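User: New here, any thoughts?
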Amino acid sequence: MFNIVLVICILVISLTISLYVAISKNINIIASIEHDKVKPENIAKISYIFSACLFWGTVLIVAGDLVYDFNFILSIFFIILGISVLLMFYVLFMMIEKK
């Protein structure tokens, strides 16, 4: 039961942060990027991509946690896929900033 409550809390927090960044276009909370060097025309793209990657990465990691008791291999696959989605943001960020 505690596992389900924890998963719901994590998803709500992730959704809240994703919506905040997408609506406010505040990229100051994104770690490992120099937000003062971002071109103003790219801020909207970066905030939307961050929001999508954060939420879907969290969903996949949480799915991996929920599936852990039933299928270990599928759980590891979901967790690795979720981390890959989170890392994909930084790849996309570099591609947008190089243009």
